[in-house]
User: Fold this.
Amino acid sequence: MNKNTKLLLITIDGPAGAGKTTVSKILAERLGYKYIDTGALYRGVAYEAKKSNISSDDDAGLEKLCATLCLEFIRNENGLRLFSNQIDISDEIRTPEMSMLASAVSARKAVREYLLSRQKELGKGKGAVFEGRDMGTVVFPLADVKFYLDASVKTRAKRRYKELIGKKDSPTLEEIEDDIKHRDENDKNRKLAPLKAAEDAIIIDSTELGIDAVVNHMLSHIINCSS
Ligand code: DC
Assistant:
């Protein structure tokens, strides 16, 4: 994109497996923006809670934990990695167990408050693509361009299955579909910052769309906003 165009803050919300990560990374690269995966931050909290034996409904324990956490994204030879208190936990947070635990801790006020301020800090200066569940509704209600990316449960489960195939203890397609349904239920029905499209979000259903089609569709909206 032309260097004279203004820097935007772009949000992409939606349920698990809708293609947010792939699309967000491509968009950020094409635009020369930074990419922030906010789900990784929730997974980081979940990982540390498990390590410290703090259960997902122990609000006091979670609050204490968050006060000592230092979650940072660092780019190195392995790509963009998540570090927690200087330790790379990027691989450890990508398990089905961490997906469910992240969804559980993300419903707790102490965790959301801690990550809200962390995400706002990361958004300073714009020129960023933020992916998550509440980016356009709660964290950045004034974002320049908001997308909500969705797809059918079956399609999302198949995509996750392909990503996990061959990995240690990879789950079956049925298990993934059940986890996705369960997570949708948690994320959409929690009291705090539930997963939903912002009123001014552009809604895209990727069930029948390939990555390129989604990216091009998004770029056409972004270009309109940046000129
Ligand atoms: O995007 P993900 O699958 O890595 O997210 C893991 C969980 O974190 C998700 O089930 C709900 C929670 N989450 C959230 O509540 N708000 C966000 N902005 C991002 C993720």
Notes: The two ends are 10 Å apart (CA to CA). The pocket of 2'-deoxycytidine-5'-monophosphate is lined by residues 16, 38-39, 42-43, 99, 102-103, 106, 132-135, 183, 187 (CB under 6 Å). The first helix runs from residue 20 to 31. Residues 9-216 form a domain with the Rossmann fold fold (CATH 3.40.50.300).
